[in-house]
Description:
Blueprint: H1 2-6, H2 8-31, E1 37-39, E2 46-49, E3 63-64, H3 68-71, E4 76-81, E5 90-95, E6 99-104, E7 107-112, E8 127-131, E9 139-145, E10 155-160, H4 161-196, H5 199-217, H6 222-225, H7 229-233, H8 238-253, H9 259-282, H10 284-317, H11 320-343, H12 354-362, H13 367-474, H14 479-508, H15 516-531, E11 534-539, H16 548-567, E12 573-581, E13 584-591, H17 603-614, E14 618-624, E15 627-635
Parallel strand pairs: 11-12
Antiparallel strand pairs: 1-10, 2-3, 2-4, 4-9, 5-8, 5-10, 6-7, 6-9, 12-13, 13-15, 14-15
Helix pairs in contact: 2-11, 2-13, 4-5, 4-13, 5-8, 5-13, 8-9, 8-10, 9-10, 10-11, 11-13, 13-14, 15-16, 16-17
Amino acid sequence: MSFLKRHLPVLRTFTIILALLFTVGGALAAFERDADAIRLDSSGWRWAPATSWDESPPMNGWRPYTAPVEVAQKMYWLRVPLPAGQWKDPALFILHAGDNRAFASGIIIYEDMPARKGVRVNSGFYWHMFRLPLQLPDHVDLLMRNGELSTQNPSIELGEKASFVNRSLHKDLDNIILGGLLIFSCLVSIGFYVSHREKLYLYFALLAFAGGYASFVGNQLIKFLWSSPWISFLQETSMPWATFAVVGALEQVFPGINGRALKTLRRIVLWFSVLATAGAFVSVYFYTFWTSYLYLPIFLSMFVISYWTIWKAYRTRRDLESIWVMAGFTSLVAIAFVHVIRYWLPPNLYEWWPGLRDYLVSLPEDLIYLGLFAFVICLIRIIIYRYTAMNRQLTELNRSLEQLVASRIEEIRASNSELEIANERLAASQKESAEAMAESMMLEERHRITGAIHDTVGHTLSAAIIQLEAARRLLPLDRPQAEEKLEASQNLARQGLEDIRHSVRLLRDDLGHFDLPGAIGALIRDAEQRSGCRVDCRIGPLPLTLSALQKRVLFQALQEGLALGLKHGSSKRFEFELEAESGAIRFLLIGDGKTLPEHELGLGLKAVTERVSRLGGELRLQSSSGGAVLFLSMPA
């Protein structure tokens, strides 16, 4: 009772699988239908040696058919008596024969000789069926060869052709259905392997394909669909390949348990399967010996190692995978063991149990396919379990990722809030700095203007006073020259008055409403009138975000550039461009005069250079083939 309690899950699963096998097997057995045919008794047969496939039935030399082993590997004649009866569509059904040519009343009525054409034939599955004349002859003569290694008696039945077809349909339709299900499982598993790249799916696909192929070709119905003997001849390779797939699947399901033994066994079974498949195309003797006798110790080794591995996994894990593999593999191995004893043991080994062979023959021939299908169902259950577990892990991972993303979003939002506060503080600080800089520049500009008034107006007034003093002295002595001095004094007074008005106008300008294009135009007109030079001006669209400080710096740069070019560069013609380009203000003034060294630029232009640098721009004075170039660039 303690053992049953400990192993209740695996026993319950094993019982379910066995119940399923018995239920399906019983349903399929009930569906089968025997043919309304007469099995001809071989005691009335006669045989005779044959020397050529082109000869006719012999007239004499017929011997009683009592030693089938003697003639099994030879070409021979077989005379089969036919019982009288009423038949609508009489036909002979011959099993366990490779090549066959049938004669009725000395006339050929059927011929099918694949082995003569070099095609391998498994006489255990290959059969012949041909119509007989409605007026049945008393016998038919068959020129035949059972097979290169066949030791079985030909099985010959007489009946209606439709009855034979109906029997094959009922008897083997279950194999076709099982084969279709296994092949479908193979295709599904290949799809899983392509998407997941897990070897378990590949081994499962091979196992399902081996079982499906063996189920398809290991029946009589397949010849109605495909008459090539090759497909049934290769049926014996399915068991080694299925064994290889089982070992590989166990290695993947239970990694780390008997890993070295399973790996060695897998390699041995792989080489055995490859050599068995290649031997089918090379030598019938090698192929039969390889698959009939050498496979048995490999199967027993697989049984011992695999069951040992499954038992260890079951004892240590007791999870769903080990339970289903234990139950499914036990069912498969038990049925496969019965199959091996039934088909691969030499006949003399049955002498110790005379009734064993009769009991094994009475079992359904497709029992091995049902056992394999049950094991495939167990593997499908494991795959579904793994797939469900993987989906569950992915769901948990997605939930964790969602929580992590949500927490990161909250952190980012908090960081953004802090950055916004810092940006507001920085903007306020920058505004204060800009206002302080603007105020500083205004004071500096006023100092510069007052200095310019002192220098220019003071100089002009001093010159006017000197001219007036000279005129006063010359008035009694030389009146015309005194009048010239008075006129010069008058001109100097007017120029001083204009300089005073210009300086006052600059002081009155409101930096917040400074019209840069208008101021530049007035500056250019004033320079052209006073010096007689020519300035070609082109001003493009300027950004609205341009600050008053930037406008003042651009104006001062042009003012100092024109003054420098006129006073020291001897320029008579200028080209001026001002435009916005790629987020920056581009300023270009080209004069046709000479370029001055850097130490002669003057304090005004040097001050403008420093202001441009503080605003993030640059100001350069360089020479070109056309004259002097003043270049300025700053962020817009």
